[in-house]
Here is the input.
Amino acid sequence: MKEVIKRYSKDDLTIVWQPTMCTHSKKCFAGLPEVFNPENRPWVQLDHKTSEDIIEQVKQCPSGALSIEGDVIKEIEETITGSTKVIVSKGGPLLIKGSLTIELSDGTVEEKSGMTALCRCGASANKPYCDGSHQSIEFDT
Here is the structure.
């Protein structure tokens, strides 16, 4: 599967969307539909809200599929205390909040910060990351 990464920019703010990481929680467009609307093209339109509002909503992304690039990333990194928290979501992924290093089976090393969703059900096509497949197999643990 080819990795797709989309970037949406406004002033000094760049939102990065990695669709293969998305768990389809719908928090982005439920929380800020003026910016994140899957019926629009492009589906991310940063001109409709302030950078602060957008940053706050992106911080709510449970999978890390939405993230921030550029100078404003320092603001988000400062909110991470240095500790890492693991949240087991009912019927969904392991949500890792904080900074971590993931070494993939092929030896590739990835640095993550903020929120990362790891597959618990085994059905993800994007392992070790959750892609929302737990919904289609009715994973309930």
Q: What stands out?
A: The two ends are 28 Å apart (CA to CA). The first strand starts at residue 6 and ends at 10. The chain has a mean pLDDT of 87. The chain has two domains: 6-78, 85-136.
